[in-house]
Amino acid sequence: MRTAISKNEDVKGAMQAKSNAAHGLRDLFENGLKDIYWSEKVLTKTLPNMVKNASTPELVNSLKSQLNESKEHVSRLEKIFQENGMKPTAKKCDAMEGILKEADGLIKETDIGAVRDAGIIAAEQKVKHYEIATYGTLHAFAKTLGENKAANLLAMTLDEKKKTDATLTGIAMSTINNQAHKADAITNIKA
């Protein structure tokens, strides 16, 4: 049997949730901007570790390019905040934090070389797919809200994320995945 105290705690918790809840599309848009802003800022800090751990020159160059793009994406997001009369504010994105934690684990748990490079690409593509989903959603929200400047900036970033994803697939398929697969064969021979 539930006590009156636990019922009151449930009501109090529900009221707090409602006060922090998004009440409309604009709130969802602003919350999404804060999440992706946090994500982009964190990526500018985590990509250098991926660069340091990658061994294939093509992958290293792609990751360096992504780092420069992430810095530009932070600037674009700051413009969107300013256009909407908001202070640029980062809100921790649990999804991106989880993806990046997994990426860090992949780096630590893989052999240096093609196997680690394949893991870095896999991790970075998870990042890109999350970003593509987020920027696509924010672009749609901006268009619906009549925020045309924001929609244009978000569309630019979305296109860049899609191109980066395609580049990573190309790098993986051209050499890295096959080299990582050969490492399987060598390991099986030794066993």
Major sheet, described briefly?
A: none
Annotated CATH homologous superfamily: Ferritin, core subunit, four-helix bundle
Number of helices: 6
Number of distinct beta strands = 0
Categorize the overall geometry.
elongated
Fill in the CATH topology. Answer: Ferritin
Query: Would you tell me the structural class of the helices and strands?
Result: mainly alpha
Tag the structure with descriptive keywords.
mainly alpha, 191 residues, Ferritin, elongated
How would you characterize this protein structure?
By secondary structure, the chain is an all-alpha fold. The chain has a single domain, classed as Ferritin (Up-down Bundle). It has helices at residues 4-20, 25-53, 57-83, 94-108, 114-145, 148-190.
Summarize this structure briefly.
85% of the residues lie in helices and 0% in strands. It has helices at 4-20, 25-53, 57-83, 94-108, 114-145, 148-190. α2 (25-53) packs parallel to α4, α2 (25-53) runs antiparallel to α5 (114-145) and α3 packs antiparallel against α6 (148-190).
